[in-house]
Amino acid sequence: AALPFATVPLLWRRTRPGPALLVLALAFAVCSLYAEAQPNGVGLLLGVYAAAVYGDVRVRRAGGVVAAGVLLVAFAAVLGSGDGRALGHLTGMAFGYGVAWVLGDHTRTRRAYLAELEERAVRLERERDEHARRATDEERARIARELHDVVVHNISVIAVQAGAARSTSAADPARAVEALGLIERTARSTLGEMRAQLGVLRRGDDAPPRQPQPTIAQVDDLVARA
Question: Nearest to residue 201, comparing CAs of 151, 153, 147, 150?
């Protein structure tokens, strides 16, 4: 009659390890006290393992206490009957319960460690993506600022030189030609700088080579152009 109580609770060993182990222990105790044959402890063995793997701290402690108490009751019953074979059977089961408890606790610890490693890997990947996105945004903002500076400065130079060429074309044609040449050089330089900046956003080998930023040694050239 106690057989269903020693097997059916195993269906809930993962979701309800505490109650399942309690029912299995009670069924084992009843079989030890009242059954004529030696009790089958496989169900309780699986219940102990499941409690060590899936139970929280209270379930694991309570499960260990319940299993130990049931074994003590079984040993007392066997000693009272004087059955040596049953005593040896219970001793083997007690050792098996200890091994099942240790294996279950090891499995739970390993699973928790692997879950922590996976969570850490996901967190590091998320942080890496966030850093990459932030670096990309900063690079885009820098390129936008540089493009703005290049375009505004060089277009201003072109506008000034165009006005100078127009006003001096009649009185001083040579100076007007010089201004037109400066306009041409400034426009080409602007296009080259824009290509270099936009090349940062491209992928592949077709992007134009980048050049270093101008230094203080090039101030004379800048003044001459201005």
Answer: 147
